[in-house]
Amino acid sequence: MASALISRTLFANRSTLFQSSLSLLTHKPLFFTSFSNRQFHSQAAPAHLSYNTSRFVTCHMASSIAGSRAFSAQSMSPSEPVVSADWLHANLREPDMKVLDASWYMPDEQRNPLQEYQVAHIPGALFFDVDGISDRTTNLPHMLPSEEGFAAAVSALGIENKDGVVVYDGKGIFSAARVWWMFRVFGHDRVWVLDGGLPRWRASGFDVESSASSDAILKASAASEAIEKVYKGQVVAPIIFQTKFQPHLVWTLEQVKKNIEDKSYQHVDARSKARFDGVAAEPRKGIKSGHVPGSKCIPFPQVLDGSQTLLSPDELRKRFEQEGISLDNPVVTSCGTGVTACILALGLHRLGKTDVPVYDGSWTEWGAQSDTPVSSSSSSSS
């Protein structure tokens, strides 16, 4: 009952925000270079913006002349999980290209991703609600939804199986990796993360769009409504995206417990070293401090460079090997709530390990249980 109440409350808040957004949309989307008069300037002001028409024309012409640069899922390397801002800019208008703003922030950051999306987003991008497109039967945050729920939400966004999907976020590489993983869990491999995210896009001088179209806001609202209906047992139509669940890419608490005993997978935790060691309190109340016995720690920022882009294959390989992770053996990743664990999975994917599972409940689930073993820097287990 409590989880249902939480779900209803979250949905009501999102619906209110979507409705208020619609009332503000009296003009077509705008391209802009300054936030000086925008309501949310203090939260979302870009590091660099430029309306560079000549650059757009040059890139567009270059992509038209160079056929190999035209968008094609087949032309992308299956082991390359990210695309550059230049590549996306050159392929942005391709008919089978869908771009998603999947920004999500920790509660203590006090940032509203939907509002920031409305202030500035990549032209044509749709908003993917990480908290909304999730399992409505649990009070654990943004857990993986059911196949039916994901299919309904993604269909409401207008995404089909033939589409290539590029996901980005407002930090660089953060929550976008979670949505990349979600699509792969449900059998869609034509998905990539924008390397460096919206900050890199802006720094490259490419246009951002303001005043999200009513269609974009309606689709985001429809996605939340669709998944809500699925969990209420109501029929949702039309379904234009078909899922094919890949169970090997997602782990449960029971699988992590079993792995402590048989050690078949190397468990890598993406949280900070202080949280992993149990010397820093968890950000969520009622969660024990420490880590899963036998796991190792590679904080997710260590697989990114200073501009929040993914490290090169050589640098990634070195980072994992320094922590004693054998790339010849299976790896499972976890973190606080299943978001930054996906960044480690993204890095491992670049190294050719395309079958890395993520422990969905991660530490928020593990640390809340009374019977789960915990290790810390001061004790081996408790």
Folded structure, characterized:
The protein is α/β, with parallel strands linked by helices. The protein is 37% helix and 10% strand. The protein contains 14 helices and twelve strands. The strands form four sheets. Strands 2-6-5-3-4 form a five-stranded parallel β-sheet. The relative contact order is 0.14. The model is unreliable at 1-71 (pLDDT under 50).
* Largest sheet, spatial ordering of strands: 2-6-5-3-4
Distance between the termini: 31 Å
Total helical segments: 14
Mean model confidence by pLDDT? 83
List the main descriptive attributes of the protein structure presented here.
alpha/beta, 5-stranded parallel beta sheet, 3-stranded parallel beta sheet, 12 strands, 10% strand, globular
Provide a compact summary of the structure:
This protein has 382 residues and is an alpha/beta fold. It has 14 helices and twelve strands. The protein is globular.
How are the secondary structure elements laid out?
Layout lengths: L1 H23 L5 E3 L8 H4 L8 H13 L16 E2 L1 H7 L5 E5 L11 H7 L6 E2 L19 H10 L7 E5 L6 H11 L5 E4 L2 H7 L4 E3 L3 H18 L18 E2 L1 H10 L3 E4 L3 H5 L18 E2 L15 H10 L8 E4 L6 H10 L7 E2 L2 H5 L16
Parallel strand pairs: 2-6, 3-4, 3-5, 5-6, 8-12, 9-10, 9-11
Antiparallel strand pairs: 1-7
